[in-house]
Design goal:
An eight-stranded parallel beta sheet has the order 3-4-5-6-7-8-9-10. It is 32% helix and 13% strand. It is of the alpha/beta class. Helix 3 packs across helix 4 (150-162). Strand 7 (166-172), helix 5 and strand 8 (194-198) form a beta-alpha-beta unit. The protein contains ten helices and ten strands. The protein has helices at residues 39-50, 64-76, 98-112, 150-162, 176-183, 206-214, 245-253, 258-268, 280-286, 296-303; strands spanning 12-14, 20-22, 25-27, 54-56, 86-91, 117-122, 166-172, 194-198, 218-222, 272-273. The protein has one domain (12-321): TIM Barrel, CATH 3.20.20.100.
């Protein structure tokens, strides 16, 4: 458990394999159809100057070339060393068959222009028809699924770690049953060090957080400030998190924003956060969480805000047998 007095020096969480993960990272997803070229590049360069060392990306975001270029340039100009940067890449749903795992990671490395990633995770436990079409659909517009054994995919990931292509291995959007499938795999060589899931004051994930703690798995919270209001994939029944009166009032006490309070809340629970922003002001602002801490009373009050409602439901894939969100946690 990270102490409430999370010092400016110790801005990272130890992982079960001996590596460390910075507690705050920059999420780099942007709708490829709407995000101007160069946006991710500029945002990552700025973020490194601000102090971010953790970057969360994915091949399927279609901007890893920009993220990689920004990182390489900041290494070249002496701002950071490669060892100081923590990059998380993701295995997309069309690359689950074991023979496609390493080529997918090698493609990410080539796109980034890096020799290794720090963390490579299975992005979603649902498998799609293998191939280079990221969202394969049939003539009726239905997604084409694929039956795959997650344990076989994990073994291929273990081989990537053994080959030095990634320092650590993890998963994303896995429920307890799916985590146990990996943890109880015969001949398991490398445990998942992290599980990236939606986590914020309106969706605090207490049971999954406790299960992961017991198994030395760090929760990385995506959408830690809620999420965009894009009705095509976001549950709009949930009110905007950052307008919550409690978060706003606690923020006033510390001369902070509701976003600062939400991020600090997660970090004090031992959850790493990856707020996504391409706004210069927000990128700078979101990093200002190391100069105050919440009291136990405040943390308890924020925990009570939990509505147990997801913003990110991904219902379009809810008929897949490995869709993770039917289970309680």
């Amino acid at each position: 458990m990270i102490s409430a007095t999370l010092s400016v020096e110790s801005r990272s969480i130890p992982l079960s394999d001996g590596n460390r993960m910075p507690v705050i990272g920059l999420g780099t997803y942007g709708d490829p159809r709407k995000t101007p070229k160069g946006t991710a590049y500029q945002s990552v360069k700025l973020a490194i100057d601000v102090g971010y060392r953790h970057f969360d990306g994915a091949l399927v975001y279609l901007n890893e070339h920009e993220v990689g270029q920004a990182i390489r340039e900041k290494i070249a100009d002496g701002t950071v060393t490669r060892e100081e940067i923590f990059y998380c890449g993701k295995l997309w749903c069309t690359f689950h068959p074991p023979e496609l795992v390493r080529p997918a990671l090698e493609r990410t490395l080539k796109t980034l222009g890096l020799d290794y990633v720090d963390l490579y995770i299975i992005e979603f436990p649902v498998a799609f028809k293998p191939g280079d079409v990221f969202y394969p659909k049939d003539e009726n517009g239905r997604y084409i699924y694929y039956q795959n054994d997650l344990r076989a995919t994990w073994e291929a990931l273990e081989a990537c770690k053994d080959a030095g292509l990634t320092k650590s291995l993890g998963v994303s959007n896995f429920n307890r049953r799916q985590l146990e499938l990996i943890l109880n795999k015969p001949g398991l060589k490398h445990k998942p060090v992290s599980n990236q899931v939606e986590c914020h004051p309106y969706f605090t994930q207490p049971k999954l957080l406790e299960f992961c703690r017991q198994n030395d798995i760090v929760i990385v919270g995506y959408s830690p400030l809620g999420t965009s209001r894009d009705a095509s994939w976001v549950n709009l029944k949930c009110p905007p998190l950052l307008e919550d009166p409690l978060l706003v009032s606690i923020g006033k006490k510390y001369k902070k924003t509701s976003a600062h309070v939400a991020l600090r809340f997660s970090v004090q629970r031992g959850v790493a956060v990856i707020p996504k922003s391409f706004s210069c002001e927000r990128i700078k602002e979101n990093f200002q969480i190391f100069d105050f801490s919440l009291t136990e009373e405040e943390t308890s009050a924020i925990e009570k805000l939990n509505k147990n409602v997801r913003f990110v439901e991904l219902l379009m894939w809810s008929d897949h047998p490995e869709y993770p969100f039917h289970d309680e946690y």
